[in-house]
Amino acid sequence: MIKIAVVGSAGRMGQTIIESINQNDKVSLGIALDKGDDLNAVLDQFDVLIDFTRPEATLDYLKICQQAEKSIVIGTTGFDDAGLELINNAAKNIPVVFAPNMSVGVNLTLKLLDMAAKVIGEDADIEIVEAHHRYKVDAPSGTALKMGEVVANALGRDLSQCAVYGREGIEEPRDRQTIGFSTIRGGDVVGEHTVSFFMEGERVEITHKASSRMTFANGAVRASSWLEGQSAGLYSMQNVLDL
Length: 243
Ligand code: NAD
Description:
Layout: E1 2-7, H1 12-22, E2 27-33, E3 48-51, H2 55-68, E4 71-74, H3 81-90, E5 95-98, H4 104-120, E6 125-132, H5 142-154, H6 159-162, E7 163-165, E8 179-185, E9 191-198, E10 203-210, H7 214-227, E11 233-235, H8 237-241
Parallel strand pairs: 1-2, 1-3, 3-4, 4-5, 5-11, 6-8, 7-8
Antiparallel strand pairs: 6-9, 9-10
The structure holds nicotinamide-adenine-dinucleotide.
Nicotinamide-adenine-dinucleotide (NAD) binds near residues 76 and 101.
């Protein structure tokens, strides 16, 4: 049976992941750690590590996993380019699943977005609106950015060149080549994303609403099982779900 280490175990996701592991008879909880605990001291107690923490913590755990040749599932969001490069480099030595959203529904939504962008994207103004609970610290969400990346790739655009984050004051009229992002924070919203394709005379909206963190936790646990026997590499939930 695969033994999992959960870091950030006191957090909202950490707690839900432990619940998901306890409900799953194919995996077991090897060790649960949070701030102050030493991962190096418990390397013999797990096969795969699941991390939903903060970027700086993730990068420390990643380094230890790389040295100890352990697989890792990274759910943390909000990495800068330097952090993303470290993840890419680590994946040359160990198997890594890295996904800003581990829910099956969101990953299906990414597939639908790719399809929609290819059919109507060139003729549409594309806007992404996301809402999350008041405690979320990074904006826009990693999922919104991933959705933007999928749409941009389908259209042969570079998201870093065409993204527009929030709007205020007097601006030029909207450029069709851009992809707009808007963020709302409040209450206990687990995560809602809508991508709108505004055309002349009609609008297509693709929405995903998460009502429980269990959807992300189950995805992360599924990714841990999937990692068994995989060779080193950077994998997404699209790989895990074979989408
Ligand atoms: P949270 O604040 O409830 O929990 C974070 C946990 O990480 C806490 O227990 C905290 O003590 C711990 N932590 C923070 N810094 C640490 C450090 N330096 N060393 C060790 N532990 C540290 O947050 P959350 O809502 O559980 O979200 C955690 C992360 O997961 C966020 O980046 C969030 O965006 C992301 N997330 C991803 C998905 C997904 O499907 N990929 C879904 C939900 C949340």
